[in-house]
Amino acid sequence: MAPSLSPRKLFQWYLEAGVDETIGDEPVNRYMAGETPAASRRQGSGDFPPAAVASARKPANGRRPDTPDTALRSACALAAEAATVSELHEALSAFDGCALKKTATNLVFGDGNPEARIVFIGEAPGAEEDRQGRPFVGPSGRLLDRMLASIELDRTKVFISNTVFWRPPGNRNPTTTEMTICTPFVERLLELIDPHILVPLGGAAAKTLLAQNESIGKLRGRWFTYSTPRLPRPVHAAAIFHPAYLLRTPAKKREAWRDLLEIKRKLISLQE
Ligand code: URA
């Protein structure tokens, strides 16, 4: 016999399991007769989300959402036009090509000093970041602040952003398409700040920014270079463990602290 669960207990169980949203990744048009979410999902192709495939059908308001390549083209054009970090922020606020924007409360552009010599890039905003519109303000942000303080840095001396600028629903990982569509803005951000050092936080940011396939455990503790055609010179890049991972796996803090000391050493040597 199936155990009976009161609705209150069920909700409590959902909350403890981390389910804090009652929305899906994409809007469902309940007026479309015979069109079940499962049926429309089957029409998805490759990595592109079903919402993008569904955009080939004309929605009721007559406006078609961007397909991923249209969105990517428009992201490239908008990002390239920005001449300052605040112009880039404005361009991103006006950009509707990333599906994550539909379910997010706020754009999470970045925080810190746009003239910083060191930039930290995380994976994606979480619930608290979405509420406040600022990156790394939840539990992992508090640890990141302590990590920065351990090498005499704070948010007046660094710039912090993410590989995507809106919270993925339910804190799922951003898809490759979502990250690809946001990449021109991340690249332009790095070109405009032109830092000496780039620090991807965690595996997702490290793999995207360093164009590597290895795990963060293999990528950390090594120096790479990050370059784009519009950067005056390559940026020194070293990935470290994501603070959220360190909260779950405190035994790894020892390696993270070693990496931070190496980053501090490099930062000092580059200003001499
Ligand atoms: N984790 C991230 O990767 N980015 C944030 O902004 C917050 C948590």
Rounded radius of gyration (Å): 20 Å
**CATH class of the largest domain, anyone?**
Alpha Beta
The distinct bound ligands, ions and cofactors come out as: uracil
Number of domains: 2
CATH superfamily of the largest domain: Uracil-DNA glycosylase-like domain
The CATH topology name of the largest domain reads Uracil-DNA Glycosylase, subunit E
Low-confidence stretches: 35-60
Specify the overall morphology.
globular
Question: What kind of assembly state do the chains in view correspond to?
Answer: single chain
Spatial gap, N to C terminus: 72 Å
Pairing-aware structural class of the strands and helices?
alpha/beta
Round the mean pLDDT to the nearest integer and report it. 87
Cross-sheet strand order for the largest sheet = 1-3-2-4-6-5
**Largest β sheet strand count, sense and barrel closure:** 6 strands, mixed
Helix coverage percent of residues? 40-55%
**Which second-level CATH architecture of the largest domain applies?**
3-Layer(aba) Sandwich
What's the tally of helices?
Answer: 13
Number of strands: 6
Order of helices and strands: HHHHHHEEHHEHEHHEEHH
Strand residue percentage: 5-15%
Keywords:
272 residues; alpha/beta; Uracil-DNA Glycosylase, subunit E; 2 domains; six-stranded mixed β-sheet; 8% strand; globular; binds uracil
Question: In words, what does this structure look like?
Answer:
Helix 4 packs parallel to helix 9. It contains 13 helices and six strands. By secondary structure, the chain is of the alpha/beta class. The chain starts with 6 loop residues before the first helix and ends with a helix. The protein folds into two domains: 32 residues, no CATH class; 204 residues, Uracil-DNA Glycosylase, subunit E, CATH 3.40.470. The chain has a six-stranded mixed beta sheet, with helices on both faces. Helices cover 45% and strands 8% of the residues. Bound molecules: uracil (URA). Uracil binds next to helix 8.
